[in-house]
Amino acid sequence: MVLNLIGTYECKADAKGRVMFSSALKKQLAPVLQEGFVIKRAVFQPCLELYPMKEWNVMMEKIGKLNRFVKKNNDFIRRFTAGVKMVELDGSGRLLIPKDLCQFASIEKQVVLSSSVNIVEIWDKDQYEKAIDDAALDFADLAEEVMGNLDVDELS
């Protein structure tokens, strides 16, 4: 099953770092809820990434093919997996974000859950708004650079 998540959802984190998932997002994640998730620091942004276990295993398969006798590969693996934790939604549909990861992403109260194809990005609301505003300036150029070289047939 291909997971193709849709939507951006605002919610609140409580004092313990628990975030209530919206019913719309929970419904999309229903097929993978039982398997649990992996949460980690994002590589390029001050946010967290929530991988359904199946998606995490696909990523680890790719990373597992890296030659560990190449120093930069080892350095990458160490940084990519730094702070990684297994998590699951509790019976009330809440996700407990570990304290160290809340600190990394500056998550305190207002949270944005943003779908990113097959994972969910977890942002502090102010950081998310800033990232979107900053990206808006370059988005036309970025869109052309990333998607402009693709043949129309490749997109369908």
UniProtKB/TrEMBL annotation:
Alphabetic keyword roster: Cytoplasm, DNA-binding, Repeat, Transcription, Transcription regulation
Alphabetical list of CDD domains matching this protein: MraZ_C, MraZ_N
Keyword DNA-binding carried by entry: yes
Pfam families in the record: MraZ
Subcellular location: Cytoplasm, Nucleoid
Quaternary structure note: Forms oligomers.
Record's protein name: Transcriptional regulator MraZ
